[in-house]
Specification:
This protein is α/β, with parallel strands linked by helices and about 120 residues long. Helix content is about 35%, strand content about 30%. It comes from Paractinoplanes rishiriensis.
Length: about 120
């Protein structure tokens, strides 16, 4: 089981960025799920960005936490954005059939931001 570190900050445009580093698995996803849902409920940002640049591993539990965040954001009208998913994370979302829901292209092509 891995370790994940999350930092949350507000950008000048009002968007909130949750930067995730490390692994998203059974040992770490509760914190991510709580952070995403809590931020959406407390702050009601126009946009919530989940920066996955430094996520080195993600299993089905991590995917579930992203789906939970996506639905929590949609319920209050917040735009949910995945930023810079690694090739590994992108592949995990494609394999599970969720890439389209997150607005991901068929294959990663460098540093990108994906919105839904």
């Amino acid at each position: 089981m891995g370790e994940a570190v999350m930092t949350t900050r507000r950008q000048a445009d009002g968007a909130i960025v949750v930067e995730v580093r490390g692994s998203l698995d059974a040992a770490t996803v509760d914190a991510l799920r709580t952070e995403l849902a809590g931020t959406v409920q407390r702050e009601r940002p126009v946009t919530l960005i989940v920066d996955l640049t430094f996520v080195v591993f993600m299993d089905s539990m991590g995917i579930g936490a992203l789906v939970t965040g996506y639905h929590a954001a949609r319920e209050v009208g917040t735009r949910f954005v995945l930023r810079n998913p690694s090739e590994f994370v992108h592949r995990q979302l494609r394999v599970t059939g969720l890439a389209e829901m997150f607005g991901l292209p068929p294959a990663p092509s460098g540093s990108q931001t994906f919105t839904t």
